[in-house]
Write a structure and sequence with these properties.
Blueprint (H helix, E strand, L loop, with lengths): L5 H5 L3 H7 L4 H10 L6 H9 L1 H8 L16 E6 L2 E6 L5 E4 L6 E5 L2 H6 L1 E2 L1 E4 L10 E2 L1
C-alpha cells in the first residue's frame, strides 16, 4: 500500500503536512514566519497555534509597520539586561516580545528608554498598533 504523503513528509516538507490536513497555503506563510528560530519560543508557539487568526488579521486593511515577525531581515537580535530583544537596524528601536501573551511586541524608542522601562507603543505580530499601549511598564 502506497502512502502519497510519505515521500514529502520524510523529506521534511511542512507544506505537504499542512496541505494534508486541509490548512490553506496562506497559513503556510504564517507557519514559515513562525519557524524563524530567532523569535522567542512564546511568539513561535502563539503564531503556530493561532495561524489562521493571524492570517485573517494580516488581510485586514489597516496601517501596519514591519515587525521582527513579518520582516526579520530589518532586525538584529541581541541581549540587553539579560533579555533577548530585536533591534531595528536603521532606527535603533528596541522590540521586546511580550512573553506573557506572545501576541505583540513592546517597542522602545532607544536602548536607554528600554533600560528605563519607558515604552513608546505596543505592536501586534502582524504590525498593527495596539490602542492605548504607551508609557511606563
Amino acid at each position: 500500500m502506497a502512502f502519497p504523503l510519505a515521500a514529502p513528509l520524510f523529506a521534511g516538507s511542512l507544506e505537504a503536512l499542512l496541505v494534508a490536513f486541509g490548512i490553506t497555503t496562506a497559513v503556510v506563510g504564517v507557519a514559515a514566519l513562525a519557524a524563524n528560530s530567532n523569535l522567542p519560543a512564546k511568539v513561535r508557539q502563539y503564531a503556530t497555534t493561532h495561524a489562521q487568526t493571524l492570517e485573517r488579521d494580516m488581510k485586514k486593511n489597516e496601517e501596519r509597520e514591519p515587525t521582527p515577525f513579518t520582516a526579520p531581515e530589518l532586525f538584529e537580535y541581541t541581549n540587553i539586561k539579560g533579555k533577548k530583544v530585536a533591534l531595528k537596524k536603521k532606527v535603533g528601536e528596541v522590540w521586546e516580545a511580550d512573553l506573557l501573551h506572545g501576541n505583540h511586541y513592546e517597542v522602545y524608542t532607544s536602548r536607554k528608554q528600554f533600560e528605563k522601562g519607558v515604552r513608546n507603543r505596543a505592536v501586534t505580530l502582524d504590525g498593527r498598533r495596539m490602542p492605548g499601549a504607551s508609557g511606563r511598564i
